[in-house]
Amino acid sequence: PQTVPIPGPPGLPLVGNSFDIDTEFPLGSMLNFADQYGEIFRLNFPGRNTVFVTNQALVHELCDEKRFQKTVNSALHEIRHGVHDGLFTARNDEPNWGIAHRILMPAFGPMAIQNMFPEMHEIASQLALKWARHGPNQSIKVTDDFTRLTLDTIALCSMEYRFNSYYHDDMHPFIDAMASFLVESGNRSRRPALPAFMYSKVDRKFYDDIRVLRETAEGVLKSRKEHPSERKDLLTAMLDGVDPKTGGKLSDDSIIDNLITFLIAGHETTSGLLSFAFVQLLKNPETYRKAQKEVDDVCGKGPIKLEYMNKLHYIAAVLRETLRLCPTIPVIGVESKEDTVIGGKYEVSKGQPFALLFAKSHLDPAVYGDTANDFDPERMLDENFERLNKEFPDCWKPFGNGMRACIGRPFAWQEALLVMAVCLQNFNFMPEDPNYTLQYKQTLTTKPKGFYMRAMLRDGMS
Ligand code: HEM
After folding, report:
1. What is the mean pLDDT of residues 167-178?
2. What is the mean pLDDT of the chain?
3. Closest among 27, 22, 20 to 446, alpha carbons compared
4. If pLDDT is split at 50, 70 and 90, which confidence band does 218 have?
């Protein structure tokens, strides 16, 4: 076939497009390039170039695991300084990925997640109690309180470890260290090759942050070893699990890598999801009303129960639509397994890194029509959602792809449904600033920036 070159901004010698990317908000720069160049564009960084694809058709093609696989070059390569070949950052062919995947999958299976419901509920109640005590005059820093919630939830449910974040004004040092570690990992992956001393200060901070993360995880592991437990949770699986295929076990170092991986991957994204969901609900009063009505109809005024979770169809649609417009992991990386042609006309070589820009492909008008940019949960109701995914495969990918897709999806889903239900059942919410327009804070994941709300207790709490 006739091939055409992949377009992209010219960049500068040596540094390529490094200075074309806003270090505070890299996603914004990528979205601007997508608007400028369309379905595909190439950016050059020192030592590598990445091809970005931005519509459903190309994303779908690159989700074919026969031709493409997860790549860990860019930011994930830098994150490996902290967590090595842990589940998220391992290359497909590294033995520790398979071992950890097979050992940890059962710990996150449907039954295991359902058994975590009471502990998820306990942390959600702590959040509700805090907001009830503070009353309607207190301004709620939404992302911070949801971050407390999701960090405490993943640690309690999967490791029986209590961060007790609601009992501290300051966030746990893990949170700050994690955020700057993730931001710096992104920056390192794009920075020009200047002499090492130019980076000595940020490098020192980078390794200090890694130390905080590892010490936190070591604390979790030590605490379990000192107080052995009968619980069948993730940490037990890490300590006792034997890989059915190789007979291999996870070393202590590998356990630390994976504890940090789960602490990070298990809370950042869900906290972002909940925060964005409230931004959207408060901007869309009609949706808000429907969501609250569903909670009232399904749950009444009593305690929220596990069996309600799969009855909250509208809330599920709200969450799906939130992840469509605001995918908290807005981009993932793959590479080609062979020399190939994509989109019928773009030639690429084996090993070419690609970025699947979900933040743009989720807005593809070919899939979502001319209301693609609107928040409209109706299109994500169960039947519509199924139809969309059948007609336009891979049009909604917030949990990633294939064998490297999110292991925590059922966990995140149950947690998000529960928290939405607890919040809407007990409170009426108001935005602090009715004119708030969505802005992003980005580490590797995205969250809304500067978003505050107030919570008024409805009649009685459960
Ligand atoms: C992988 C999204 C919640 C643990 C992924 C990937 C995405 C994703 C896009 C693939 C990354 C890639 O291809 O490079 C999300 C979203 C979440 C969420 C949007 C919440 C709304 C969670 C939770 C956990 C978790 C709660 C842990 C309990 C992981 C792990 C991987 C992963 C360990 C790597 C899996 C592997 O490569 O085998 N997630 N995630 N995630 N996620 Fe999640």
Report:
1. 87
2. 95
3. 27
4. very high
Cβ–ligand 1 distance for 154 under 6 Å, the answer yes
Distance CA 418, CA 424 (A): 10
pTM of this structure? 0.96
User: What are the phi and psi torsion angles at 222 (to 5°)?
Assistant: -60, -45
Measured by CA distance, the residue closest to atom 15 of ligand 1 is: 399
406 flagged as catalytic: yes
How far, in Å, CA of 291 to CA of 421, rounded? 9
Which residue in this structure is represented by tokens 């030592």? 47
Active site residue 270: no
- Could you say which of 216, 269, 287, 322 is catalytic? 269
> In this predicted model, what pLDDT tens digit does every residue of 369-380 receive, in sequence order?
999 999 999 999
Give tens-digit pLDDT for 31-55.
Answer: 999 999 999 999 998 888 999 999 9
* Residues β-bridged to residue 354: 51, 334
| Percent of the chain whose pLDDT exceeds 70 | 99
Q: How far does residue 97's CA lie from ligand 1's centre (Å)?
A: 14
Cβ of residue 265 lying under 6 Å from some atom of ligand 1: yes
